[in-house]
Specification:
Helix content is 51%, strand content 22%. The protein is an alpha+beta fold and 523 residues long. The strands form 3 sheets. Strands 2-1-5-4-3 form a 5-stranded antiparallel sheet, sandwiched between helices. Strands 7-6-10-9-8 form a 5-stranded antiparallel sheet, sandwiched between helices.
Length: 523
Amino acid sequence: MVRLMSLRIKRALQSRNHQTSKGKCRTLRTRADVSMSDHILNRLPLMVGYWDASLRNRYGNDAYQSWFGASAKQMYGKPIEHILGEHYYARVKDNVRQALAGKPQRLESTLTDSAGNIQAYFLVQYLPCPAPNGSRGFIAVGMDITDYKQKDALIQQKTEELISSEARYRAVVQDQTEVISRLTGDGRYLFTNEVFCRFFGKTSEEMRGSNWHPLVYSEDFERVKTEISQLSPSNPVVMIENRVYSGEGKLYWMQFSNRGTFDEAGNLLEIQSVGRDISERKRAEVALNEANADLRASLAQLRKLSIDATMAEARERRAIADDLHDDIGQALHIIRLKLDQLRQDCRPDQLPHIQALQTIADDTSRNIRTLTAELHPPVLKQLGLIATLKWIVPEMARVYGLTVHLSCDEHKPPLSDVQAILVYRTVRELLINIVRHAGVNDAYIDARCAQDRLHLRITDHGRGMQEETPSAKQTHHHGLASVRERIEYMGGQLVIRSHPGSGTSVWIEMPLETIAQADGSTA
């Protein structure tokens, strides 16, 4: 009987017309067909059972038996409320009544534990099926849809999260102070935030589908177009600064961050553009450039004043040297001649006095010559800096007792008069500082020309001093502050390195051709 019923159930599942038109199930002609029908039904991922008109079980496939925890023998002939349980049967009783009346039923059902927690979801169908005796039973088909329900719930959750996220994103975008838009790959607007619309005096409806070209200042258009074309999968973000007209017709500078979205083939799909007003920054840059131009002009003026001051001082020194040499020097020469005449005609007791006067005159004459050379050595103008450095070596030994070791290029560097005077005065000042403060009798000068610059180093191995700080630059080294400033105004550099007990080194660098050409003369 069970095998015959399984075939009828199979036929009921295969043909809905069988349920409505014929009103009864076909019978099997062979036992082999019945066995095959059982085999097929037991392999289905469905729970299949048959209940007769008196609501007693007449068939259940393996899945149906497994779900209710009973064998076919244990289920067969049992009333439906006994198999389903009174609680569950009460929930589906009306559906069962409708199925017996010939109306197919479809419902979702759940399995709960004792605490009321849902353990599983099922999709259940009750399909009317007449029995051979003309009474009406029904086929119960159940499918476990727990996985589908869970996936559906997850999809629903993700969808809600996505909707919520999009809502938050739109809220954030709308609340931004930047102008934000999305465009197609060919430059048509898909979305514009409220700030964008307010700034350009448009509505979102007006902007949607329009092109970005009219918004850009005409002189910037080609540049913007070129930079946008540089978007690529390997270069997805392009920053562009360009001018735009606001809805009021005012010209603004804006900085746009443009991020491209691409398909798998590398084709540009969309551009998200975020722009911010940088007009104030641009105005500040213009003001800064103007200030820098003014500063450069001021520095050029300072350089000119420095050169003029140096040349004026050099002229004054030369005038004083000339006066000493021409006036006082000649007067001393005449005094010496007169003393020679007096020595020839004087009495013997007067001779010591005359000789003392001659000694004083000779010493004064030598001092005048030394002072004249220090004020403005003629060799500097006539032979240049290197010859002057060679001249200063014996002078420092004779006047100060300082042995100077000189190493230098033999050729004459192309220095202007101003440069030569500054370098000479700096070297002499440093050598005198060594005499006064270093506590040594030797100094070293190295002078070289390289890469259109004069490189000069003055070194001693004396007491040294604390490393100078920027605030001390203007006060140390007794008179070098103004010289340093003038060297720096002329593009040069003076650097002092020293440590207590380790001596002192001073580096001087001076450009050769630029200042020389500007001054028009070399030494």
